[in-house]
Amino acid sequence: MRIITRVTLPLLLLAVPGGAANSQGMPTSQPGVLSVIIEELKPGVGADHEANESGWPVAFEKAKSPYYYLALETLTGPPEIWFVAPYQSWAAEGESMKLPESNPALAADLARLARADGPFLNGYRSMQAIGRPDLSYGTYPDIAMARFFEVTTFRVRPGH
After folding, report:
1. What is the DSSP string of 84-134?
2. Could you list the pLDDT tens digit for every one of the 160 residues in the chain?
3. CATH number, position 98
4. How many Cβ atoms are within 10 Å of 73's Cβ, its own excluded?
5. Burial 85-124 (b: 16+ CB within 10 A, else e)
């Protein structure tokens, strides 16, 4: 059985170093690795969830993090927020994971924000995507100019 899901996601938030929502630091070529976290929201909690989520970029900015992510909100389907972080390699993503370990204040802020997120969520998923320029079409777009993304997923049972 193959399940095809198509989701349209508008650009919701861009967290970049310094907290500026601009194209500073945005990839200009296809990243090697994308880390995607998908939070499934309970109905009616969008505003409260957004208020809590605004604390994450603040915590990373306070820690002078060089990392950033895009936050995307679904327009169709169940209410979800997708957090997409680009990295050039697995090693670069591994380096980003060391930041909270080396910064106890950041680790405490992130733990507090994660606990506060729980009441707003029905579920949580994460996935890793690998960039394949050899299978990509056209030139890499200017992400800073994008307002909507269309994502199509295919789920295939093993052996089918």
Report:
1. EEEESSHHHHHHHHHHHHH-HHHHHHHHHHHHHHGGGEEEEEEEEEE--GG
2. 444 444 445 444 444 444 444 445 667 778 899 999 999 999 999 999 999 999 999 999 999 999 889 899 998 888 999 999 999 999 999 999 999 999 999 999 999 999 999 999 999 999 999 988 888 888 888 887 888 888 887 888 888 7
3. 3.30.70.100
4. 16
5. bbbeeeeebeeeeebbeebeebeebbeebeeebeebeeee
Tokens of 38: 């998908």
How many domains does the chain contain in total? 1
Q: Could you tell me the two tokens for 24?
A: 């500073």
pTM score of the predicted model? 0.78
